[in-house]
Model the fold of this input.
Amino acid sequence: EPQQTKTPGIVVQIAQAARKRQREPQIWSNLLDQALATHGELSPQDMASVLWSMSEARFLHEALIDEFVRSLSFRANVKAMVTAMLAVDRLGLPTDSLRAPFLQQLSGQCEELSFGDLRRVLMALARCWKHCAPVQRELLRELCDAIAEQAANCDPRDLVAIPQHLGRLQYLHAGLLSTSATAVSLLVSSRLSVLPLDMLRAMDGFLMLAPIIEIPTGRQEVLTLSSKCGLLGARLLEEASNDDLWRVGSQLP
Done:
């Protein structure tokens, strides 16, 4: 499907309202009514963007959500579907109607996706776990194999959230866990800048994974690394400004 060269005005207006933290219900209702009325002219990415703006504002428009989810389930690409899944989950709604066709589309296609898209897919599957049935292990293996293969020479900060994703999914992929643990170890011991929330997420992931690691030495290594992440995260929080602390709090699940 050809990409639009210009984002429709209503999509821009909705995104601006979200950025300005507009909280007036009537304004949101009017904007979303307009988006729903013109949804046939919107691309999958446009619809996903509208859903994401809604999730930022925590505003529900049931008719729009139903129509956009129905449309996206038939014609969305990976980026649009991931954004939509995260937005719907963020609104506290089930994502099964998006997730099922997405997983069917994804199977056998992981090798064709970019490193960034692969990580976003894993993040979406992990964050939406509360409202969904378990992901098929064969698909998780395919996804994690592809991420591990493309992770060579990447910025270690690109892998810091991987342990939490694996932990939420309760999926132990030895290769990806080893790669991400090495990256986190480098962050702990280096001078690279890292966000406190990322360290806390890594700590959380290692703690969730430790009980399913059968080899005692491996389990202890993961727990030790988790403790180091916690110490670094706590130190970074002590040094953070009030604005940074509010930002961390707003991103906690």
